[in-house]
Give the backbone structure.
Amino acid sequence: MMGDGEKVTDVDSLLLASAKAGSAEQATLDAVRDVLAEDGAVEVALTSERAGLDAALDVRGGRRLVLAGGDGSLHVLVERLRKRGELSDVPVGLVPLGTGNDFARHLELPLDPAEAARSILTGRPRRLDVLRSDRGGGVVVNAVHLGKGAEAAERSGALKHRLGKLAYPLGAVASVFGPRGWRLHVNVDDEVLSDGEHRVVMVAIGNGSSIGGGTPIFPAADASDGALDVLVLGPGGSGATGTGGQPFRLMRRGRGRAVTVTPAPGVTVGVNADGELSELNRRRSWWVDPAAWSVICP
């Protein structure tokens, strides 16, 4: 088992990346591989599904594990490592190749892929929290948000292949003109942030500090402090219909170890957990699993 302060160096590497990478991404992967090769042999494993990821992890051996991807790819990797019982023991090197790279931003990792790879060679594991969910044993690495945030992600998905990093803010703008919110009861530890009587347009639960490629919804967040941050937004004034004013207003902020969201009867709201989309139509909880894993940081 490898703990904080123990340097990760002079070992071979297993570099995980998406099998859907195009020619530009392949050139970036080649550059990352060349940097990692300064420290030992590098095997590149291109995967497109969880089964392929498990197959690659099965033959990792003692090699350094490096992921080239964004928050969604990191989410899947952490989920698989936890289910394999390996999450606590395997430090992850992260090369940001996603659209938003919010968790890498939170950790202040280099956003240039080659620089990120070089920082892995000299970095040290940093212990971090992960958020757990009572829905199928799911995990959240950076943030989960319900309502408008999930709508924005869903709408931006259709634009992502054409607009890249512009897709999320455009999706967010489009989501403003959707439903006026949902009746949700939100409870953080013993504190009620929303009683379910008033409409909520967004609930955000953070381990990291930002979503959507750097929007700082939790600027003071610390992914290693054993706590989660919660933000509840309600409908604003006339801006929600596009006639001026603010579309959202801050209802409450909270901080604690666990949060529960309960929709009113008949209510279904979208959920975005590190980019993985689902729906909530009954009570769901998230809680902090402190110091559950580690990322190799500069």
Summary: Residues 13-131 form a domain with the Rossmann fold fold (CATH 3.40.50.10330). Helices lie at 23-36, 50-58, 71-83, 102-106, 113-122, 148-157, 160-163, 167-175.
